[in-house]
Amino acid sequence: MLSSIVFSTVVFVWGVSNAVAQSEYDYIVVGSGPGGGPLAVELAKSGHSVLLLEAGSDLSEDPLYQDINKFTEASNDPRTRWDFFVKHSDDPERELKYKHMTWRTTNGSFYVGLDPPEGAEQLGIYYPRAATLGGCAMHNAAVVHLPSDDNWNYIADITGDDSWRASEMRKIYEEIENCHYLENGTAGHGFSGWLDTNQDDGAWLSNATDGTTVLATIAQSSGSVGNSNGSDISDAELRALLNRDINGPEPNRDELTGVFGMATHTDAAGRRFSPANYIKKALKENPDLPLTVQLNAFLTKIAWDQLRDFEPPAVMSIDYVIGPSAYKADPRYDPTQNTTNGFAWVGKELIIAGGSFNSPQILKLSGIGPADELKQHNITVVADLPGVGANLGDNYEGGVLSLAAKPFEGFGDRYVVQLKTSASEGNRDIFLWPLNAGFEGFWPGYPDNYGPNVLTIPFVHMDPRSSNGGSVTLRSADPFEPPEINFRFFENDSDKDLQAMLEAVKFAQKVKGLLPGSSGLTPFNELHPCTGESSDCTDEAIKEYLKLQTYSHHASGTCAIGNVFDPMSVLDSKFRVKGVKRLRVVDASVFPKPPGAFPVLPTFMISKKAAKDILEGL
Question: What's the pTM?
């Protein structure tokens, strides 16, 4: 167990005594992911003593986690993963139609599918999270994608706080970014921040025979170049598309469509760069930095100072346990394993950054949440906030999976295609990318191996209208028991969302149809959502498939920022929990709507914003 990280050399120093010797910290941050990790460093750099609790261990030097192309293996690694099982609706029959439903068999193993063996226990739809230094930024695909200006401006509008305006958030982006793929000084980007960003330069074009053909066809289909015939698109034009900046500062950026490079949080050598790197770099550069990092530490209790009737309850101290795999979502959980108790006084503030599932669970177990739910579990109500655990949302994800007539040769690297569908209210609303691999969501051990002939075109539907109807509720008052999670997808105003996703499917099918016969790749055998190229797959059949098989992996919204007079808001515009003092939440749970295609970059940004808000308020 790591109780403090000391970088007098490049070596970790392990032991318990250093961490428990100090019993009070100015700030305690729970969770070292994209929200909590950078925030802890910023507060410590400002001279404040900080205790950072992380429930997992540090694997940032492990090659598995440094290679972003191995994100599927990383998210299946039992050393870091937390296994959550969720629902997509309140309809048991609809749930059973999800083709990757996960079950626990009588011998303890997982079964995934529609025909479970006798005696198997239905667990739900798999939704892995990461418990490790750096959080989910350690097992994701590392995509950095700025949300639309409308996402930021919406928060400014509902709170009346103009520091959330897109123009102000762009400045924060420039502050935190250390861009490696553009010329130093390029407008709209930063080159001296903590967050390394990089982008493939398209060098693979000269060696990717089938990959170049696919890219040219996608460029033709998406109108990315002026040429109407894909065969007329030059390699120079394709390279220029791969170098398009998806996070540029153009005034009409949110309406731009076509092919873009895929920016990632990776260093100059292409290795994953996460909050773990920032934390360790900060401690190495300043061994006297007042930051204590406690790994394998799990928060169990918040104690309140309620002695003054005329003031809201204030955070006083926390209890936690030290020991690996303490949470029951950990596949290595062992109820007989011993843990060590930890305690700390909170000098100034406690900041929760546990993510969209665990942050509302922590608040509820501490007496902050819907009063009726808390009373059901005999939890004393500290603040009746019905919005805690409500408003759970996510982007909808789907895709088209097909088998080519021959194996792909030289498929190339990753890039992005953005589309604007007829359901859009003005901004691009589809984010997709082609893969020479099978990818249809998340389940234990995913994905299925379809061999070298496979072409998957996955997509994310951004700014969905029928999301944000889900909830995270307590199963019990046991802090080690994962909560009940139900996304309630497509329950309200779903027609436009399904139409947008249908058009993404049609685009992917169009790409396959335009690939030249001379490539040898055609005809394709489509497996999902339609079966066989000649099958009668109607628009309504595709929509029904999407409704049943949509997946997601980027939850948000369960501790939403909002107008302080809105009874369903949980936080004010400065991340402060309503109804109590000295408590904030800083992670993806704060977004009232899903931010962009992937929430990791917006969460990096709000981490910096929260640091500014905290320090400016002193």
Answer: 0.95
